[in-house]
Amino acid sequence: MKRYLLLLLFFSACTPKETTTGDITTQVENGLIEGEVYFEGDKTSTIQERMDFWGVPGVSIAVIKDNKIVWSKAYGIMDKETNEPVTTTTLFQAGSISKPVAAYGALKAVENGKLNLTDDVNKFLTTWKIPENEFTKDKKVTLAELLSHTGGLTVHGFWGYSPDLPVPTVVQVLDGTPPANSPPIRVDKEPGGTFRYSGGGYTVMQQMMIDVYNKPYPEIEKELVLAPLQMNNSTYEQPLDSVKIKLAATGYLPDHQQTKGKRHTYPEMAAAGLWTTAEDLAKFAIDVQLAFKAESKNLSTNR
User: Residue 25: which residues within 8 A CB-CB, separation 6 or more?
Assistant: First the structure.
């Protein structure tokens, strides 16, 4: 799996109220712990030291305090060939962080009466349906199970497609037929049972949204999530258009080599296709925090 230029989002809700923005900046830039647990007296690192250690050319950071973005900053370069610097509007491929944002969109569809969390998802799927088998005979897959990775569906994640490869349709991905590079997405254990991470389940959800709204998935997510939360620099477009591609960070592998073609295209948009910035992700996180506290104006607080 490839490693993209790292996008970091720091939450500082526990920072004392008297801490200034300058203090926060200093803490973030110079106080990174080097292990999973910090003990008093342990060595800390600077952002640049951590970037050098992991071989990450560029980083974008946003800090949240008291449900507000108090600081954001970018470090390093977005491409080793051009040495173009990362800025706070540089787009990063969010990978599986795409899923919670996509789940928010699905919940908005439920709130709007377009979907239901507990009905058989095949009731909403029209272009393609989950094939019936021994595991779905008595228990059908629901949207709640797709979102919580308990639907019994296969396919953990996706590799994406470099620019020299044909990109499959979502239905081809669902059935694992060429040119898809992943196996068929199927139910191979009883829905509603144990947790098993499934990007495949989120791809089924993506097709549900497309079938119900009869629109391209990026348009649906923009309408339900990105625009209401003012995530103005974010998109589920795959691939990016000629304007946005200029803002997109180049991907690099764990061995520090450039990803083939710089970036991969993910037709599995709900599972892995979000392009975003640290500030935009912070806006999303803040709205979820406010929804939890019953203060969000976007996601229903009637829980």
Answer: 71, 73
